[in-house]
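User: Fold both of these, please.

Assistant: Here is the first one.
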Amino acid sequence: MTTPKIACSGPIGEVAIDILQPYAEIVIAENSSEAALIGILEGAVGLILRGDGVGNARVIAAGSDLKVIGRSGVGYDNVDIAAASSRKIPVIITPGANAQAVAEAAIAFMLGLCKKMVYWDTQLKAGNWGSRYGQETGDLDGGTLGIIGLGRIGCKLAELIRPFNMTVIAHDPYASRQAAAALDVELVGLDELFKRSDFVSIHALLNKDTRGLVNRARIGLMKPGSFLINLARGGLIESLDVLYDALIGGQLAGVGLDVFDPEPPDVTHPIFKLQNCLTSPHATGMTRRSMYRIFQMMAEDMAAVLSGQKPKHVANPEIYS
């Protein structure tokens, strides 16, 4: 009899290995591509998709023995939920596990951009002490922060930003007005958010309704010299071209990007040559503490499924109806 296994699109944390090893052998794919995953799915009772791991219908179909799919994160746009649900396969997610880390990163991007940290670092190391007289930096103090998506990360950001003396507004059609009021956040329409904000931080889920949500027209509503941060999904922004044009034209003073569409991005795009475009490789939520929580939550719920129990956090709870 073939030993059951759990196929993984990338390395997983020790805490997940400790929890899942009693149930199956852990097998890591050579890379996160469709072909690599399909190649290790025979006999797999579980599939773990990290980052850009492909969880389309072909991959799911190749796992004829699959009982559970785990996503090491909150977003699940790389998983064909319909294909999983048609076979009653729960898709495990880890809501809130990295909320603190991503919210901290959003503030780091805001500070890094408005304080021109990359510019000052470059000038000092080039021996240009006199550069301190030729540039002016900005402030969070007294500004308006617009948060797109007031879920766990958006709420955590609203909480952490309080000491900076900012007005916080948000757009989220599903947010509770009572919850927003408790955070001293005003819920507004999307266009109003772009018009009023000095900083816009994106924390929405990507789906057919939100793809391209941040487009050229909406960026054109922003105050000249404002800032845009995206730590959610690259597809929420129309294109890098619209960001580049806004940076060159002065509509945006700075852009912070941790996510792209596709990933990895084509770094020959001219936006990557701009000093006021601060980037990271979809890594800001991958702190030591957050990754431990993510792998622990995911593995515990996967173990529950493999034990015949109901998991706590699933993207497709309707399969249990």
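And the second sequence with its predicted structure:
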Amino acid sequence: MSNPLPVNSILHGDCIEVLKSLPENSVDLIFADPPYNLQLRNDLYRPNMTKVDAVNDGWDKFTGFEEYDTFTRDWLSACRCVLKETGTIWVIGSYHNIYRVGSIMQDLGFWTLNDVIFIKNNPMPNFRGVRFTNAHETMIWAQKKPGAKYTFNHQSMKALNDDLQMRSDWYLPIATGKQRLKVNGRKAHSTQKPEALLYRVIMASSNPGDLVLDPFFGTGTTGAVAKKLGRDWIGIERDKKYIKVAQKRIDAVRKADEESLHVEKRKQARVPFGSLLENGMLKPGQTLYFARNGTRAKILSNGHLRCGKMTGSIHGVARSLMNDAPANGWEVWFYKDKNGNKIVIDELREKLRSDERSNV
């Protein structure tokens, strides 16, 4: 008999061992902010000779890349076991570690959906003036295996972005001021992430009632935002002083009311691709162009496409061209207008919907 899930609680211990104690295929979303292996050797000082409060914690120290890679492979493997087939994982890092993390994720079978750049509105300057100011961190968003259905709340992301499709470059401030947790006047945690970052991650890739797990919980940003947004959560943390701060923080959070949490997805009238032919927006024999490499396909009279030896729907042919990765045909096929400009066919679908609404 499997152990019950310890939802909405912080589990004390080593994340790899704790993850192994959790049921397999039980978590909807993982956000991981692992040690970056910054390899800092010396103290850093500002031009006025005041010491910079840098990341020099013991948990970020490794003997070398081999030890760090072994650690990374072990915790990612454990995360993959607890992640549902339909689940996704976000891992954040800097140039010190993200390329090694990404390579290991691919080796373990994760399928990358996006890399998202967290661009800091207020980064720490490069005090020595020997490099560019490091103003961003990179997040890898991946699913457990390619082709599985996963959660992406596209309309919610558009709504957060003034009804414009959200891009993969996120301009957000780092955690400062009242949001930066302190103990006895000092930062409670050296790498506390801003709540705005977790708000987007959780809104984008989970639904109310889903279970969100953070294996490097720290001061509990993931749990605080998850609770606010009506998600269940589990945090794993080995340092008791962080647990104490995180629990106090999360206890003070109020969950949003049910009406505000259950955002109704915009219901759009279904438009078959064949409707574009029936309404004369596209014609049999016309050429469509695939977004990735410009591969051509001919429109058949029944609404299918013929591309080389392949024949099928706009979605099926697109998937074949992408080695069976998920594909929305409306977003990856383009036609040429009378001026020779390539335009995504989804614009024709939206025009048809608009015409139908105006005729109601």
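Residues 43-47, 49-55 have pLDDT under 50 and may be disordered.
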